[in-house]
Design a protein that fits this description.
Organism: Sphingomonas sanxanigenens DSM 19645 = NX02
CATH topology: FAD/NAD(P)-binding domain
GO molecular function, one term: oxidoreductase activity, acting on CH-OH group of donors
Keywords: FAD, Flavoprotein
Family: Belongs to the GMC oxidoreductase family.
InterPro entries: FAD/NAD-bd_sf, GMC_OxRdtase, GMC_OxRdtase_N, GMC_OxRtase_C
Number of domains: 1
CATH superfamily: FAD/NAD(P)-binding domain
Distance between the termini: 15 Å
Length: about 525
């Protein structure tokens, strides 16, 4: 393991100078090429670069993370819609009254982990056991993954050796000195018979749900992204080259074996060879786009755009899932400034008592977050929002190419709320939301329900108007053994050599909770598999 570089100015300078030299002298070949420096890509690049005999190229389309808007936890909303956001928009959705939702995705070193709300949510036991079942590999099961979580965490909360580790690269801490409004949510949950836990990870994610203060990736008051946790401490190494502001246009092939990548850097297009493997880690919207541009996808779709077929895999771009959310907002009696990330309490619960695992996901946000339509109800100047969503939506969308030009955004048909079961769960979700927010625990802080407002119905029209995304896109290059699966349990692309996918796109279903922790596990699993396969 490399020494800790957090807050070490001398190390920062050495790393910056090293990477400037590597960028000025980009080689024609590397052992491994990792496309995307998000949660999973950062992990893989670090784990491969730990072997000094291994040359690693990490390619990121966005820029540096050295910006106060990235590093200051409370300023994360300013990243949305900025140059650090891919700025995707879903197609107009008839199930949401024709609305076209923004589908933000992180662009830059750290990917989503450099622009998100910093929540560390491991996923439920049932998620991981499902992944093991559909992949045919117990290494994806909950017990195996729990061991990885313990190995990678540097847990700063109450000691819990059965569930938490303290020697890993990922600094995880409970919300520090949380807002009284976060305590109010825990008290409101208790009043409704929902159990509270010391942490939302560990025992709570083996149960039917509960409420807890949020675990977050914040260290010494600064964002501790997965790039900061994994890659930055080894950025001084001669065997690691980090290219920012560089677009991977397509994967190159020798027959059905990946041989390298075609990139665009500083306006110039060039090819770089991968001596061993190419790993795609560009996220659940860009990964299927890159696969299809490279000739991997549905034969008919590729023929339509004149893209030569490398491998017919009809599942590429299908099975798009995301957490859909509905916000209810309450007005404060007196302003309460947001603390930490502005989201310090979370809750998971069931829409129906017969379910085995929670299917609802609640994040408290310490400022008003209306949709563009519910804002018409009147947004209070000071207030808080219950951001409440479906942890296991049944609706499925698709990512398609609109052109064979790599500069063109793909078509994202999110198709949210298209399955009637989602509306049924959403009704239970917003009702529980209102029940929580109107509990006596909030009386000292809250003057009224502002959105939708006391006396206004929580009807299906409100649900369609309120729906937004958690930006937890998953599933578009899913792992499995059937004909619609894109990768196998080792994350190798079916029928293609020397090409792996490792990001949220491989998850067969969206996990229970925020996605950056599961994506970190995807990166660790991929790295373990690569190191074993090549004896690194």
């Amino acid at each position: 393991m490399s020494h800790s570089s957090f807050g070490d100015a001398d190390f920062d300078r050495r790393a910056r100078e090293n990477q400037a030299r590597r960028r000025a002298d980009v080689k024609t070949a590397y052992d491994f090429i990792v496309c995307g420096a998000g949660a999973a890509g950062s992990v893989i690049a670090r784990r491969l670069a730990e072997n000094p005999g291994c040359s690693v190229l990490l390619i990121e389309a966005g820029g540096s993370d050295e910006d106060e808007v990235v590093m200051d936890p409370g300023r994360w909303p300013l990243n949305l819609g900025s140059e650090r956001d891919w700025g995707f928009a879903a197609e107009p959705n008839p199930h949401l009254g024709g609305r076209a939702l923004s589908m933000s995705m992180g662009k830059g070193l750290g990917g989503g982990s450099s622009v998100n709300v910093m929540v560390w949510a491991r996923g439920h036991r049932s998620d991981w056991d499902h992944f093991a079942a559909v992949s045919g590999d117990d290494g994806w099961g909950y017990d195996a993954v729990l061991g990885i979580y313990r190995r990678i965490e540097n847990w700063q909360g109450k000691p819990d050796p059965d569930y938490r580790g303290t020697a890993g690269p990922v600094w995880v801490q409970p919300a520090n000195d949380p807002s009284p409004i976060a305590g109010g949510l825990l008290d409101a949950a208790s009043a409704l018979g929902i159990p509270t836990f010391d942490s939302p990870n560990g025992r709570m994610m083996e149960s039917g749900g509960g409420a807890a203060y949020t675990d977050m990736l914040v260290r010494d008051g600064r964002r501790h992204s997965l790039y900061r946790a994994y890659v930055h401490p080894v950025a001084d190494r001669p065997n690691l080259t980090i290219l920012t502001d560089t677009l991977v246009r397509r994967i190159l092939f020798d027959g059905t074996q990946a041989s390298g990548v075609e990139i665009e850097l500083a306006g110039r297009i060039r090819a770089i060879t991968a001596g061993t493997e190419v790993i795609i880690s560009t996220g659940a919207i860009n990964t299927p786009k890159l696969l299809m541009l490279s000739g991997i996808g549905d034969r008919g779709e590729l023929d339509r755009l004149g893209i030569p077929l490398v491998r017919h895999l009809p599942g590429v771009g299908r099975n798009l899932q995301d957490h859909v959310s509905f916000g209810l907002t309450w007005e404060y009696r007196a302003p309460i400034a947001p603390r930490n990330s502005g989201s310090e309490a979370t809750l998971y619960w069931k829409s129906r008592p017969d379910l085995e695992a929670p299917d609802l996901l609640f994040c408290q946000v310490e400022f008003p977050v209306p949709s563009e339509r519910t804002a018409a109800c009147g947004v209070p100047e000071h207030g808080w929002t219950m951001f409440a969503g479906l942890a296991h939506p049944h609706s499925r969308g698709q990512v398609r190419l609109q052109s064979a030009d790599p500069a063109m955004a793909p078509v994202v048909d999110a198709n949210m709320m298209s399955d009637p079961r989602d509306m049924e769960a959403a009704r239970a979700c917003v009702k529980l939301c209102r029940d929580l927010g109107n509990q006596a625990a909030f009386d000292p802080f809250v003057s009224r329900e502002a959105i939708p407002g006391d006396g206004n119905d929580l009807d299906d029209a409100f649900i369609r108007d309120a729906a937004v995304t958690y930006w937890h896109q998953c599933g578009t290059a899913r792992m499995g053994l059937d004909d619609m699966a894109v990768v196998d349990a080792s994350l190798a692309v079916h029928g293609v050599g020397r090409l792996r996918v490792a990001d949220g796109s491989i998850l067969p279903k969206v996990p229970t909770g925020n996605t950056q922790a599961p994506c970190t596990i995807v990166g660790e699993r991929a790295a373990d598999i690569l190191r074993r396969q090549y004896g690194l």
